[in-house]
Structure formats: structure tokens, C-alpha cells
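ok here's Lrp/AsnC ligand binding domain-containing protein, seq below lol
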Amino acid sequence: MAASLGVRSADAVARRWERLASRGDAWTTAYFNPHSGGDCVALVTLRCRPGTKDHVAATLADDPCCLSVEITTGSQDLLLTIAAENLESLNAYLSRRLEQIPGLTRTTTALATHFYSEAANWRLHALGASAHAALDPGVERQQPGTSITFSALDRRLARLLSANGRATYAELAQEAGTSQATARRRITAMLRSRVLSLRCEVAAQLVGLPVTATLRGRVAAVDVDRVAAGLSGLAPVRMCATVTGEHNLLATMWLPSISAVPQFEQLVARNFPSFAVHDTLVNLRTVKRMGRLLDDSGRATGVVPMRPWSAARARRTALRKVPAPPPPQGESTFNSC
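and the structure came out like this:
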């Protein structure tokens, strides 16, 4: 790694990374690729009563199955990414947990049907092609769709890596209750089959891309593959997916300014006229991104290891009372995250 960055000392690179990580400027994580483990992924939008969205967002950020929580402008107050073991479990989470939180006035759920791009493959383009090649881990990849059977151990290892993508095999083995050889073998199998992704994240403001926006719209089914592939190839787009419901296509991008939002919409309109953009949700604040709790500046302050909602967890939570939001105060309660 040191050579690819033009630095002689590997120790210097390690020290620099430790400084970045200790400040929450950058972090590493791991997660199952969408649908690879049989889980369903839902994009859920919420409307909240005035004065309650901060409390609702902070409450949901504590749920391991609620992978990301964003406070948005536009027609919705919150945008969530939720993972569940199956549709039954997702319904249980929505009805027994999410919809019981005081302050909600409306929820809308869309199921992700296919991800054309996701943030693990997104690049800042800070390095050249040769540097990227030098940093490639060299794991021999199997063809997409290769069959792999997940065990409880695999999920434990994935959850541990979601908290620290740089954990050693010795650390993972000790925490998961297995041997180093088994931990190495299972993680390598998941990486080879492309069902587990390692991902380095960064506070968006620090790289000059402080604005996150999500386009939602509709395109004819016959044209959806072409449009989605085209959108995925645009530099600002971190995630592009087809979903069920009123909007069948959405894309999330990182942009340098608010003025770049209409500019990007114009670009989409020119290049993909068959894609009718219905609305754009601009992110006011990311409370949680793929398991990481973030502060107002987008820096990581904590982690909630990701785990899909299960029927068993739904039964345990059925009788749990969700606390009501506190009375309005002069200051936001977000720092409690």
C-alpha cells in the first residue's frame, strides 16, 4: 500500500490511517451484497409530525437492521435502508417496531429488486489506475451467482467485519468463537463469491462532496436496464437500484454543492429522456450510514453492527415499549447519537 501511495514507510501509512480513523474521518466496514444472502432490502420513507423527526431518526439508528438513516428535504422527512431476512420479517419490523414509534404520520415502503451499482464500487478517483491495481487484494473471484451456503458463523464474521473491516483473522476468530484457519477460509469464500463486500468510507464534507441527493422516478420497463446502467456510470452516482412501487428507479449521488443538484437533473434529462424524475430528496443530515453513527459533520462517532431483522427478533420486540419523544427543547437532541 505504501508504494502505491508514493510513501516509503508502511508504518507512516498505518499511523496516518489511525489518525483518520480516530477522528472519525474515515472507516472500513463489510456487508453482504444486497440479496446475496436471501435477505430483502427495503427503501422506506417517513413523514413525521413537526418536532419529532430528530427523535424518530435517533431511535431507528439504534436498530441493527436499519442500515442507514437520512433526514431529507422534499416530500419526505426520513429515508431509511432496511434489511430483513424475508418479507414476513420485514412486515413484522414495520408493523411491530417502526410504526409504533411516536411521531410518525406516514410510511411508504419500496423493495429493492436489483442494484446496478452500490457504494462499495464507487471511487473518489484520487488514485490512478496503477495505484488501484496495486491495492487490489488479489482475491480470485468466482462468477456472480456462484452458490454459497451461509452459516451462523458466516453471519457472525460479517457482523464483526461491519464494525471493523480491518480486524485481523486472530481477532475475528476469537470474537466469533472459531479458529483462525476457519475464519480465513469462510471470509475468503464470501469475498470470492462476491456476496461480501469490504468498503472504505469517508466523511463526505472532507472530500468536497457535502451534498447527498436521491433521485426517484420512473422509466418504462423495456428501457430500465439501459437507463440504470447509464446512471450507474455517472461519476457522482454511488448507488442505483430498481425498486417496487410508484418510483421504479432511484439513484443516490454525492455532489459538491446545492447548485449541482439541478445541474445533475438537467444532465439526466438530456442523457435519459425516458427517465421521468418525480422528486429529488436532498439530504439534510446522515444520522447513520451502513451501520455507522455520524455527527453533524459526517464523521463516524459509533457503530451499530448490521444485522437483518428476523422473525425471532420481532417476537422479542413485540412487547417492548418505544419511548415517546421528549418535549421540544431549545437544542437538537441529535448529539445523543
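fwiw The chain has two domains: 40-121+203-317, 126-202. kinda neat tbh
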